[in-house]
Protein backbone atom coordinates (compact mmCIF):
# COMPACT_ATOMS: atom_id res chain seq x y z
CA UNK A 1 0.00 0.00 0.00
CA UNK A 2 1.17 3.52 -0.74
CA UNK A 3 0.54 6.89 0.85
CA UNK A 4 0.44 10.15 -1.11
CA UNK A 5 1.74 13.18 0.80
CA UNK A 6 1.00 16.70 -0.45
CA UNK A 7 2.58 20.00 0.45
CA UNK A 8 0.04 22.85 0.32
CA UNK A 9 1.44 26.25 -0.75
CA UNK A 10 2.95 26.13 -4.21
CA UNK A 11 1.88 22.52 -4.65
CA UNK A 12 -1.72 21.48 -3.97
CA UNK A 13 -2.91 25.10 -3.62
CA UNK A 14 -3.10 27.49 -6.54
CA UNK A 15 -1.81 31.06 -6.52
CA UNK A 16 -4.98 32.23 -4.77
CA UNK A 17 -4.31 29.91 -1.81
CA UNK A 18 -7.17 27.64 -2.88
CA UNK A 19 -7.76 23.98 -3.61
CA UNK A 20 -9.55 24.25 -6.94
CA UNK A 21 -12.73 22.38 -7.75
CA UNK A 22 -10.77 20.23 -10.22
CA UNK A 23 -8.23 19.27 -7.56
CA UNK A 24 -10.98 18.68 -4.98
CA UNK A 25 -12.77 16.36 -7.42
CA UNK A 26 -9.48 14.55 -8.02
CA UNK A 27 -9.09 13.90 -4.29
CA UNK A 28 -12.62 12.47 -4.25
CA UNK A 29 -11.65 10.12 -7.08
CA UNK A 30 -8.63 8.99 -5.05
CA UNK A 31 -10.96 8.23 -2.14
CA UNK A 32 -13.26 6.20 -4.37
CA UNK A 33 -10.26 4.12 -5.42
CA UNK A 34 -9.09 3.73 -1.79
CA UNK A 35 -5.84 5.55 -2.56
CA UNK A 36 -4.60 7.08 0.69
CA UNK A 37 -3.40 10.68 0.89
CA UNK A 38 -2.61 13.35 3.44
CA UNK A 39 -0.91 16.71 3.87
CA UNK A 40 2.52 17.80 5.11
CA UNK A 41 2.78 21.57 5.26
CA UNK A 42 4.78 24.35 6.81
CA UNK A 43 1.52 25.99 7.82
CA UNK A 44 0.20 25.93 11.34
CA UNK A 45 -2.95 23.92 11.89
CA UNK A 46 -5.19 26.99 12.05
CA UNK A 47 -3.71 28.45 8.84
CA UNK A 48 -4.14 25.14 7.02
CA UNK A 49 -7.76 24.71 8.12
CA UNK A 50 -8.76 27.83 6.23
CA UNK A 51 -7.60 26.41 2.88
CA UNK A 52 -8.61 22.78 3.53
CA UNK A 53 -12.28 23.55 4.14
CA UNK A 54 -14.72 21.32 2.27
CA UNK A 55 -11.91 18.90 1.42
CA UNK A 56 -11.61 15.51 3.10
CA UNK A 57 -8.22 14.65 4.63
CA UNK A 58 -9.06 11.75 6.99
CA UNK A 59 -5.54 10.55 7.87
CA UNK A 60 -2.92 12.07 10.18
CA UNK A 61 -1.79 15.58 9.18
CA UNK A 62 1.74 17.02 9.38
CA UNK A 63 1.97 20.72 10.31
CA UNK A 64 4.73 23.24 11.05
CA UNK A 65 7.26 21.44 8.83
CA UNK A 66 7.04 18.27 10.89
CA UNK A 67 6.89 19.80 14.36
CA UNK A 68 3.29 18.64 14.82
CA UNK A 69 1.43 15.48 13.77
CA UNK A 70 -2.31 15.84 14.32
CA UNK A 71 -5.14 13.33 14.27
CA UNK A 72 -8.24 14.94 12.68
CA UNK A 73 -10.58 12.28 14.11
CA UNK A 74 -9.56 12.52 17.76
CA UNK A 75 -8.11 16.07 17.47
CA UNK A 76 -5.11 14.77 19.43
CA UNK A 77 -1.45 15.58 18.85
CA UNK A 78 0.51 12.43 18.12
CA UNK A 79 3.94 14.03 18.16
CA UNK A 80 5.56 17.39 18.45
CA UNK A 81 9.06 18.77 19.03
CA UNK A 82 8.68 22.15 20.64
CA UNK A 83 11.06 24.96 21.49
CA UNK A 84 11.35 26.37 24.99
CA UNK A 85 11.29 30.02 25.97
CA UNK A 86 15.03 29.90 26.72
CA UNK A 87 15.78 28.39 23.31
CA UNK A 88 14.22 31.33 21.46
CA UNK A 89 15.97 34.12 23.38
CA UNK A 90 18.54 34.57 20.61
CA UNK A 91 15.75 34.73 18.04
CA UNK A 92 13.84 37.44 19.89
CA UNK A 93 17.06 39.41 20.36
CA UNK A 94 17.66 39.28 16.61
CA UNK A 95 14.17 40.64 15.96
CA UNK A 96 14.74 43.52 18.38
CA UNK A 97 17.15 45.11 15.89
CA UNK A 98 14.59 45.06 13.04
CA UNK A 99 11.18 46.55 12.28
CA UNK A 100 9.59 43.10 11.92
CA UNK A 101 7.07 41.57 14.30
CA UNK A 102 7.82 37.96 15.33
CA UNK A 103 4.78 35.70 15.65
CA UNK A 104 5.44 33.01 18.25
CA UNK A 105 3.04 30.06 17.96
CA UNK A 106 2.39 27.79 20.93
CA UNK A 107 0.37 24.83 22.09
CA UNK A 108 -1.15 25.87 25.40
CA UNK A 109 -1.42 23.57 28.47
CA UNK A 110 -5.08 22.86 27.66
CA UNK A 111 -4.22 21.87 24.07
CA UNK A 112 -5.46 25.10 22.52
CA UNK A 113 -3.41 27.27 20.17
CA UNK A 114 -2.03 30.74 20.78
CA UNK A 115 0.10 33.26 18.95
CA UNK A 116 2.21 35.73 20.91
CA UNK A 117 3.39 38.91 19.25
CA UNK A 118 4.64 42.40 19.95
CA UNK A 119 2.74 45.43 18.64
CA UNK A 120 2.86 45.19 14.81
CA UNK A 121 5.63 47.25 13.24
CA UNK A 122 4.32 47.61 9.68
CA UNK A 123 1.20 47.34 7.54
CA UNK A 124 1.72 43.69 6.63
CA UNK A 125 2.17 42.71 10.28
CA UNK A 126 -0.98 44.65 11.19
CA UNK A 127 -2.84 42.74 8.47
CA UNK A 128 -1.77 39.39 9.92
CA UNK A 129 -2.70 40.46 13.44
CA UNK A 130 -6.19 41.30 12.16
CA UNK A 131 -6.45 37.82 10.61
CA UNK A 132 -5.49 36.18 13.88
CA UNK A 133 -7.97 38.34 15.79
CA UNK A 134 -10.74 37.18 13.45
CA UNK A 135 -9.81 33.51 13.92
CA UNK A 136 -11.64 31.85 16.82
CA UNK A 137 -9.33 28.81 16.77
CA UNK A 138 -6.27 30.71 18.01
CA UNK A 139 -5.76 33.04 20.97
CA UNK A 140 -3.93 36.34 20.49
CA UNK A 141 -1.60 37.28 23.33
CA UNK A 142 1.09 39.93 23.90
CA UNK A 143 4.64 38.67 23.53
CA UNK A 144 5.55 39.94 27.00
CA UNK A 145 3.12 37.39 28.48
CA UNK A 146 4.87 34.36 26.92
CA UNK A 147 5.27 32.05 29.90
CA UNK A 148 8.54 30.22 30.72
CA UNK A 149 7.00 26.77 30.20
CA UNK A 150 5.44 27.57 26.82
CA UNK A 151 5.55 24.81 24.19
CA UNK A 152 6.61 26.79 21.13
CA UNK A 153 5.95 25.13 17.77
CA UNK A 154 7.46 27.79 15.52
CA UNK A 155 8.17 31.47 14.93
CA UNK A 156 6.99 33.20 11.76
CA UNK A 157 7.69 36.62 10.30
CA UNK A 158 7.30 38.65 7.12
CA UNK A 159 9.57 41.52 6.15
CA UNK A 160 11.96 42.88 3.58
CA UNK A 161 14.66 40.60 2.21
CA UNK A 162 17.33 42.70 3.94
CA UNK A 163 15.68 42.46 7.36
CA UNK A 164 14.97 38.73 7.06
CA UNK A 165 18.57 38.07 6.02
CA UNK A 166 19.86 40.09 8.98
CA UNK A 167 17.84 37.94 11.38
CA UNK A 168 19.02 34.73 9.70
CA UNK A 169 22.64 35.85 9.96
CA UNK A 170 22.29 36.46 13.70
CA UNK A 171 20.82 33.04 14.50
CA UNK A 172 22.65 30.84 11.98
CA UNK A 173 24.90 29.34 14.67
CA UNK A 174 21.99 28.18 16.85
CA UNK A 175 22.25 24.41 16.32
CA UNK A 176 18.87 23.67 17.90
CA UNK A 177 17.07 25.77 15.27
CA UNK A 178 16.08 25.17 11.66
CA UNK A 179 15.37 28.28 9.60
CA UNK A 180 13.45 28.37 6.32
CA UNK A 181 13.13 31.55 4.31
CA UNK A 182 12.17 32.70 0.83
CA UNK A 183 10.22 35.17 -1.25
CA UNK A 184 6.54 35.29 -0.35
CA UNK A 185 4.46 33.95 -3.25
CA UNK A 186 1.41 35.98 -2.20
CA UNK A 187 3.11 39.29 -1.28
CA UNK A 188 5.90 39.72 -3.80
CA UNK A 189 7.69 42.58 -2.01
CA UNK A 190 8.20 40.52 1.13
CA UNK A 191 10.22 37.57 2.33
CA UNK A 192 8.98 35.05 4.89
CA UNK A 193 10.80 33.38 7.75
CA UNK A 194 9.90 30.20 9.63
CA UNK A 195 11.91 28.92 12.60
CA UNK A 196 11.39 25.65 14.45
CA UNK A 197 13.26 22.92 16.34
CA UNK A 198 16.05 21.17 14.43
CA UNK A 199 14.74 17.77 15.59
CA UNK A 200 11.70 18.23 13.33
CA UNK A 201 11.37 17.84 9.58
CA UNK A 202 8.70 16.89 7.11
CA UNK A 203 10.73 13.81 6.22
CA UNK A 204 10.93 12.59 9.80
CA UNK A 205 7.21 13.15 10.33
CA UNK A 206 6.28 11.37 7.09
CA UNK A 207 8.43 8.40 8.15
CA UNK A 208 6.41 8.27 11.38
CA UNK A 209 3.16 8.36 9.39
CA UNK A 210 4.33 5.58 7.09
CA UNK A 211 5.20 3.35 10.03
CA UNK A 212 2.22 4.12 12.26
CA UNK A 213 -0.34 3.84 9.45
CA UNK A 214 1.25 0.73 7.96
CA UNK A 215 2.08 1.86 4.42
CA UNK A 216 4.81 0.24 2.30
CA UNK A 217 5.55 3.16 0.00
CA UNK A 218 5.35 6.95 0.09
CA UNK A 219 4.87 9.28 -2.89
CA UNK A 220 5.53 12.94 -2.07
CA UNK A 221 4.67 16.22 -3.80
CA UNK A 222 6.33 19.55 -2.93
CA UNK A 223 7.91 22.71 -4.28
CA UNK A 224 10.34 24.23 -1.76
CA UNK A 225 13.37 23.61 0.43
CA UNK A 226 11.27 22.47 3.38
CA UNK A 227 10.18 19.53 1.21
CA UNK A 228 13.70 18.22 0.63
CA UNK A 229 13.69 15.96 3.70
CA UNK A 230 10.52 14.16 2.63
CA UNK A 231 11.73 13.85 -0.97
CA UNK A 232 14.84 12.14 0.39
CA UNK A 233 12.81 9.44 2.15
CA UNK A 234 10.11 9.04 -0.53
CA UNK A 235 9.86 6.12 -2.92
CA UNK A 236 8.76 8.60 -5.58
CA UNK A 237 8.81 12.41 -5.42
CA UNK A 238 7.24 14.89 -7.82
CA UNK A 239 7.68 18.65 -8.00
CA UNK A 240 5.53 21.12 -9.96
CA UNK A 241 7.06 23.32 -12.65
CA UNK A 242 7.17 26.26 -10.22
CA UNK A 243 9.37 24.38 -7.71
CA UNK A 244 12.89 25.38 -6.67
CA UNK A 245 15.59 24.05 -8.97
CA UNK A 246 17.19 22.39 -5.94
CA UNK A 247 14.07 20.29 -5.42
CA UNK A 248 13.56 19.57 -9.11
CA UNK A 249 17.06 18.08 -9.18
CA UNK A 250 16.06 15.32 -6.73
CA UNK A 251 12.56 14.73 -8.12
CA UNK A 252 11.43 11.58 -9.85
CA UNK A 253 9.82 13.89 -12.38
CA UNK A 254 8.85 17.55 -12.76
CA UNK A 255 5.13 17.85 -13.47
CA UNK A 256 2.60 20.63 -14.14
CA UNK A 257 2.50 24.08 -12.54
CA UNK A 258 0.64 24.48 -9.24
CA UNK A 259 -1.49 27.26 -10.74
CA UNK A 260 -2.66 24.92 -13.51
CA UNK A 261 -3.82 22.00 -11.33
CA UNK A 262 -0.52 20.30 -12.07
CA UNK A 263 -0.72 17.82 -9.19
CA UNK A 264 -4.31 16.82 -9.89
CA UNK A 265 -3.72 16.40 -13.63
CA UNK A 266 -0.70 14.22 -12.93
CA UNK A 267 -2.69 12.06 -10.49
CA UNK A 268 -5.53 11.52 -12.96
CA UNK A 269 -3.06 10.26 -15.53
CA UNK A 270 -0.91 8.28 -13.07
CA UNK A 271 -3.87 6.37 -11.62
CA UNK A 272 -6.14 6.50 -14.71
CA UNK A 273 -8.80 8.26 -12.65
TrEMBL record:
Gene3D superfamilies: 3.30.1240.10, HAD superfamily/HAD-like. InterPro entries: Cof, HAD-like_sf, HAD-SF_hydro_IIB, HAD_sf. One of its GO terms (molecular function) is phosphatase activity. GO terms for cellular component: cytosol. It comes from the Bacteria. Signal peptide: none annotated. PANTHER family: HAD SUPERFAMILY HYDROLASE-LIKE, TYPE 3, PHOSPHOSERINE PHOSPHATASE. NCBIfam families: Cof-subfamily, HAD-SF-IIB. This is Haloacid dehalogenase.
Amino acid sequence: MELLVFDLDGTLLNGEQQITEYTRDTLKLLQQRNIAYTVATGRTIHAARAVMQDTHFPLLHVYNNGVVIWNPESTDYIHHNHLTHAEIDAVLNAFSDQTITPFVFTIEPDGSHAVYHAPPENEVCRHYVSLFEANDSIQNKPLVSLHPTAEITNINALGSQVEIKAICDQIKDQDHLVVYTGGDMYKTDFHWLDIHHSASSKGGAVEMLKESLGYDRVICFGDSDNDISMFEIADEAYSPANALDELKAISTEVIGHHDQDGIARFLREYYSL
